[in-house]
Amino acid sequence: MKIAIDAMGGDHAPEAAVKGAKMAVDHYEDLEITLYGNEELIQPYLEKHPRIKVYHTTEKVENTDEPARVVRKKKNASMVLMAESVKNGESDACISAGNTGALMSTGLFKVGRIKGIDRPALSPTLPTVDGTGFLLLDVGANVETKAHHLMQYGIMGSIYVENVRGIKNPRVGLLNVGTEEQKGSELVKEAFQLLQQAPVNFIGNVEARDLLEGAADVVVTDGFSGNIALKSIEGTALTMFSMIKDTFMKNMKTKVAAAMVKSDLKGIKDQLDYSEYGGAGLFGLSAPVIKAHGSSNDRAIFNAIKQTYHLVEADVVTLIEKEVKAMNEREA
């Protein structure tokens, strides 16, 4: 299996990408990785390995770059060349922790969509209290969507969760302001009807307050609402741990208490760390494209590679293609 990585994307590039790649090739004996980026900056972190190659380029995508212009204006950027390798069949999948909008644009124009999928969805797996996690899609690839897009998200998410995360007959929920069928916007009401007819285990509407309790294995929504939900969860977790830390550092008594429960608190923090689940998949493209978190360290990159490996191994793209084709034939 061959995976391409944008070594220059993310806050800790290229160190995190290089070290994460080394962890991955040590873990998978059949994995080959090509790091795209500035070889002079990559080499200090790279131990010689027969299954890690470097494709040298000094150009990279910046966070300030306009996503729609990257493919045309920065043809030799590490992110663009990485996606080009997937398009040309040189790599099975690709990963970047760089500019999210640029990766979505690059994936769409270089890798291309699955036939029958109208719009790809950006889809991270987020934590739940029982450690199982849930897939949320979309979280920003498409701010404006139609009901049949949400239905397609449900199908893609269900296939991924069942075949990669090993959850049989995953529960698919529709994010809404209430659980009652008649609630929500016209878009959500129409999507509800379509999901009821889709080849998924649709359990109805779910509310945002129940997401971390594991209300569903796959949660479908538009990119605007999904991004707000994602940032709210991330912000709440960071604020909560900051408040706990401040409380434990107040005086000597609380510091002693903190020392006693330190390992337990770390366990909770790890449980709520969504980077442990890998990156956000751009589902709907004709090959796996994974967006790792911008602040990813080497372990987060390793987890994103593991996720990508299992996506390719399970041939999720082909499974989505077959399901969408069969559904379209039934409707014809």
From TrEMBL:
GO terms for biological process: fatty acid biosynthetic process; phospholipid biosynthetic process. It catalyses: a fatty acyl-[ACP] + phosphate = an acyl phosphate + holo-[ACP]. Its EC number is 2.3.1.274. Pathway: Lipid metabolism; phospholipid metabolism. InterPro entries: FA_synthesis, Phospholipid_synth_PlsX-like. Keywords: Acyltransferase, Cytoplasm, Lipid biosynthesis, Lipid metabolism, Phospholipid biosynthesis, Phospholipid metabolism, Transferase. HAMAP family: PlsX. Catalyzes the reversible formation of acyl-phosphate (acyl-PO(4)) from acyl-[acyl-carrier-protein] (acyl-ACP). This enzyme utilizes acyl-ACP as fatty acyl donor, but not acyl-CoA. This is Phosphate acyltransferase. It comes from Aquisalibacillus elongatus.
